[in-house]
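To close the section, here is one more complete example, presented without commentary so you can practise reading it yourself. The ligand is adenosine-5'-diphosphate.
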Amino acid sequence: MALGEFDLIERYFKRPSLSPARNTPHADVALGIGDDCALLQPRPGTQLAISSDMLVEGRHFFPDVDPAHLGHKALAVNLSDLAACGAKPLAFTLALALPRVDEPWLAAFSRGLLKLADAHGCTLMGGDTTQGPLNICITVFGEVPVVAGKSQALLRSGARPGDDIYVSGTLGDARLALDALRGTLQLPADVLAQVRQRLEQPTPRVALGMALRGIATAAIDVSDGLLGDLNHILKASHCGASIDTHFAIQLIAAHTNESWPTGQFDAEFSLQNRLGWVLAGGDDYELLFTAPATARAAVLEAARSSATPVTRIGRIDAESGLRLVDTNGQPVSGQFASFDHFA
Ligand code: ADP
Ligand code: MG
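Output:
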């Protein structure tokens, strides 16, 4: 590599002053970049929550994506896993394979990455750098309190029959952008700009996840699509669910509803297609969680305190399987019913 490996790390990934976390009385990162290992000091009464995600060119992002957006997304998808566990971000490592040393690319990538890291007080504490096809692997470390011997981590396995099902934010925008960028869907320029932002720079719902500790019975982040990820909760919790299509469909691109295309786009934006994007879109990085009906006020307070909208879209059933129902709880018939196959 033109610029040496160590100079590259020094220039783009090592910070003279680390994130605010470093300066708190609870200095969790005891040793950062520069030695054989970094040292992370968990506080007494806490557990470490750990997750890795790899982004591969061509599979997870387009080769021409803005590197600043790529840096953001690489960390965002990892922070989203911490959010789904109710963990507070502490630090992360970055394993990077680069085809060549492209300094403008590196500058933009590290800018996007470290901006999001700083916003969450999450310190880049180490990593590895090698030459090879572009590949970005991040491991994040977060903190979850243990109270009276019990971990406060949100798991997939705690949903119980009668629990409400909620989703944060909106669903389907990222899939709309993906289809448009692949050329299988036409979108007006202003709508594309908005949904593209959701695809390339997702917002990890970290504050909501932390606020839901002790309230949510189960949680997961929506990365593969609502129904697929809900199924992970159902499997781990040994129960079923009913999703109200009336509420689910309102989750689509709520912020673009005003400018929703009409006329030539009517067929593509049929209710059927909208529901498909909501239920099986993917790449949303919203939180999907369950909570007892007695906790509705607490869920709303968690949403308010974290400034994150949440929508109640269904209920956990004792009967296994996933059902799409109308507002009266009756199975939906006709065109919507065909989405059953995603279950
Ligand atoms: P080693 O040979 O012991 O694996 P390296 O030479 O790979 O160490 O890395 C030197 C230091 O730089 C280590 O502290 C390592 O964690 C850090 N580092 C390497 N690559 C990165 C990167 N992409 N981002 C952050 N830190 C990195
Ligand atoms: Mg190494």
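Once you have examined the tokens, check your reading against these statements. The chain is about 35% helix and 25% strand. Residues 95 and 128 are 5 Å apart (CA to CA).
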